[in-house]
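Example S7 (structure tokens).
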């Protein structure tokens, strides 16, 4: 029999009228990877945030190795032997890599009231080396690193001290394949040392491969705990959604002819250091996919089409000859863009759902005197939040409190409200559960049928294959191949052109 590490007992937490976690009880063992799954908003982050002192619980208990713990913040949680890699960015700007790793534990390096920065940097560099992340330097500001590298810093920060439980909340969606492999290695090490990983991920194949045990939550309620070896992906989907996932997941048609009408043409576009001499045309009613490794330049192609690239050369032109060189021109000519980095580049976190939805449409929401009409804004945002079924109390709720899938729905509601003709969707389903994914795929299919044109950039090959009329593959900043929609296409053909 495996030994129990953590007992979760009758745990409850509400936010206003939202019951985020309702009387949840289950056990987690030593030496296991215990996955926590459920649709967006099912309470996974709320539960693990309470365990790690980020949120306070309303009631219930966490019993670690037989003793109740009450961490009031992350540092206290660390001292109890519990750490977390949070879903959002978990490192702080304005501090060095080393300061981030040892945040809250600087006292180790203080002697006679003086902080020994050299000793701290030295130890951080040794850790980074041990983890195989030598390219990250302890004394650099963490701001100098991209999202992925900052996640690697968080891996070090959360695991270097050998905690009894490490929570990994949706970290893999932020990582490239290489970054994921690194993370998996450390998850396996933690398990081998007899410690526990609580692993939150939307990627069910990944969950099945890496975890020993899986607990399913739905709408804040505990559903079941199962052994990974005993279940299939479909079993898990059913447990998560509470019914069979019916209807088409991706679009179902093949062999439909795409219009010859060109709506956007990209000629000799180069962004120094990122993409080189990219050429393509987007047609009316087409879903054009871009695939590749995360550093292939494909994300920059999306930015270039929206006039958001820095130092771009070449031309991005609409059918009427308008050249797109900046974001205001793109927006006023009906181009929409959603960023891969949703939290930093797409939503305005400290504004309401309503304000976020109205941003690009403010021109049409003013009264005759040119003053913004609160009534019009309210009606407008309500209409499109409803249309996208954003799960919320009302549109005054702050976006920062929504789950990832709901944030994405807000971003999409914004552009649907604006009635955009060309949508550049970078990683539109990143970190989103199957039900919301299905909603987004169906929305894309509907838009395509209504003559809208979509550029879909994704690191998930299955969705590119499922949704696109055409897929362009990028490698080292250049286009390395193109494939047309067909039922025989498989991931291997794409991978061959990616690496
Ligand atoms: P998951 O991680 O499973 O996607 P969460 O735990 O983030 O879900 O969210 C559970 C519910 O609690 C959702 O309805 C979400 O909107 C709500 N919620 C989470 N955090 C907050 C917060 N800080 N303020 C208000 N509501 C929140
Ligand atoms: Mg979450």
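Recovered sequence:
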């Amino acid at each position: 029999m495996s030994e129990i590490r953590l007992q979760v007992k009758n745990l409850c937490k509400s936010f206003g009228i939202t019951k985020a976690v309702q009387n949840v009880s289950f056990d987690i063992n030593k030496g296991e990877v215990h996955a926590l799954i459920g649709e967006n908003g099912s309470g996974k982050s709320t539960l693990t945030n309470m365990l790690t002192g980020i949120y306070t619980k309303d009631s219930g208990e966490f019993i670690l190795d037989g003793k109740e713990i009450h961490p009031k913040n992350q540092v206290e949680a660390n001292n109890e032997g519990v750490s977390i890699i949070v879903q959002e960015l978990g490192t702080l700007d304005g501090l060095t890599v080393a300061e981030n790793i040892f945040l809250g534990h600087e006292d180790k390096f203080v002697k006679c009231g003086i902080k020994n920065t050299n000793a701290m940097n030295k130890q951080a560099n040794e850790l980074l080396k041990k983890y195989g992340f030598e390219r990250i330097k302890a004394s650099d500001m963490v701001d100098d690193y991209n999202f992925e590298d900052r996640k690697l810093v968080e891996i070090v920060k959360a695991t270097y001290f050998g905690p009894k439980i490490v929570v990994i909340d949706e970290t893999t969606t932020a990582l490239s394949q290489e970054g994921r492999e690194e993370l998996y290695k450390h998850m396996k090490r933690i398990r081998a040392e007899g410690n526990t990983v609580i692993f939150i991920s939307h990627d069910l194949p990944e969950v099945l491969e890496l975890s020993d045990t899986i607990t399913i939550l739905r709408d804040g309620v505990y559903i079941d705990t199962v052994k990974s070896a005993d279940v299939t992906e479909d079993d898990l989907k059913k447990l998560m959604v509470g019914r069979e996932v019916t209807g088409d997941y991706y679009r179902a048609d093949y062999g439909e002819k795409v219009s010859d009408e060109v709506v956007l043409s990209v000629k000799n576009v180069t962004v120094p250091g990122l993409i080189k001499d990219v050429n393509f045309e987007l047609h009316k009613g087409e879903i054009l996919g871009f695939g590749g490794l995360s550093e292939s330049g494909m994300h920059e192609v999306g930015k270039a089409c929206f006039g958001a690239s820095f130092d771009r050369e070449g031309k991005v032109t609409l059918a009427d000859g308008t050249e797109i060189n900046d974001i205001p021109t793109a927006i006023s000519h009906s181009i929409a863009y959603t960023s891969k980095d949703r939290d930093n580049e797409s939503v305005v976190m400290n504004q309401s759902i309503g304000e976020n939805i109205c941003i690009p449409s403010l021109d049409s929401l003013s009264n005759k005197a040119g003053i913004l009409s609160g009534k019009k804004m309210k009606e407008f945002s309500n209409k499109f939040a409803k249309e996208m079924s954003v799960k919320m109390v009302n549109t005054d709720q702050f976006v920062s409190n929504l789950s990832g899938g709901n944030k994405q729905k807000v971003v999409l509601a914004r552009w649907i409200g604006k009635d955009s003709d060309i949508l550049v969707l970078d990683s539109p389903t990143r970190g989103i559960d199957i039900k919301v994914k299905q909603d987004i795929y169906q929305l894309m299919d509907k838009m395509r049928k209504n003559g809208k044109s979509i550029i879909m950039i994704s690191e998930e090959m299955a969705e590119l294959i499922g949704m696109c009329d055409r897929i362009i593959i990028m490698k080292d900043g250049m286009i390395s191949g193109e494939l047309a929609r067909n039922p025989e296409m498989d991931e291997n053909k794409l991978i061959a052109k990616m690496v």
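Notes on this example. The pocket of magnesium ion (ligand 2) is lined by residues 44-45, 87, 169-170, 403 (CB under 6 Å).
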